[in-house]
Amino acid sequence: MGFGRLNFLVMTGSLPEPFVDRLEKIVPPEKYDEVISSFSQQRHVSFRINRLKSNPDLVLSELDRLNIPLQPLQWRKCSFWTPSEFKETLSRSLPAVESHIYIQNPSSMLAADLLEACSEETILDMAAAPGSKTTLLADAMNNTGRLSAIEPVKDRFFRLRANLERMGVSCVRTYRMDGTLAGVKKPEFFDRVLLDAPCSSEGQFLAHAPRTFHYWSEKKIKEMARKQFRLLVSAFRALKPKGVMVYSTCTFAPEENEAVVSKLLKRYPDSVEVIPIEVPIENTQAGLLRWGKREFDSQLRLARRILPNDLFEGFFVCKLQKLA
User: Fold this and answer.
1) Could you list the active site residues?
2) What 8-state DSSP symbol labels residue 283?
3) pLDDT tens per residue, range 19-41
4) DSSP states of 218-230 as a string?
5) What is the spatial distance between Cα 310 and Cα 324, in angstroms, rounded to a whole number?
6) Which of 124, 134, 143, 280 satisfies CB 3.0 to 4.6 Å to 190 for a cystine?
7) What pLDDT, in 10s, does the model give residues 79-116?
């Protein structure tokens, strides 16, 4: 580690020390300094143009009139970022107020893009609220086809529905239900499933904001992992043979990422495999094959952990296919 202990403590602020110790074992040594410093930075603000309601040229013209400097996300059409000091101006702009843009971290965009949703297929967003990825999937499907979205928590469910309406999404059927029931109610029904699982949200920690991590503990990680596995099994059962699923989290914890997927591979050894993914960014690392005394299925090397920096939040993505 490039920092002395004193500088290290200054950099990480009040982040839980057990979390920091764990992170040092997860992240490659050559990437650690950049990753740990990202928790003390104000990230740039990214957004995508809502093509269901707006003309990209008109949106860009209005933002230019407000003197908001924009940089394109080179790997994604109609998506941009601006320095953090322009966040309030962007949030109050007419395109934002009228839902012609959607402010969303690029890690979250990337996870949904990897599903490669299209209108000819039946798609499920299994833990959908607040709707960031659901609205992105609807955009990719040109607001046509069959897209279902599940959310069990009442207030989050209605927030999801409000976001869909605000963004002009009309192709989504929403269901207030426990995602663990999806595989029972609709076995082998969906061509593609996105499970952006509830998690310990380590990728969103901010050293200057204890509210972002006050709940964190290793016990919490174990609780989330149990829930995630139940959801993943349900998603697998809901998937058609030859169907594709993306499992993602916004956390670093191997117990919630590689361990969950490896457990699914062990339960269904002849029925599911990890698919290689093309991630168009450099700040990633391959999935871990070992954590402490635990060893994971060798296919997990094909998963990707997105490492946080001044633009991206920490994320984990893994793409799976159900075999015939």
Assistant:
1) 250
2) S
3) 999 999 999 999 999 999 999 99
4) HHHHHHHHHHHHH
5) 42
6) 124
7) 999 999 999 999 999 999 999 999 999 999 999 999 99
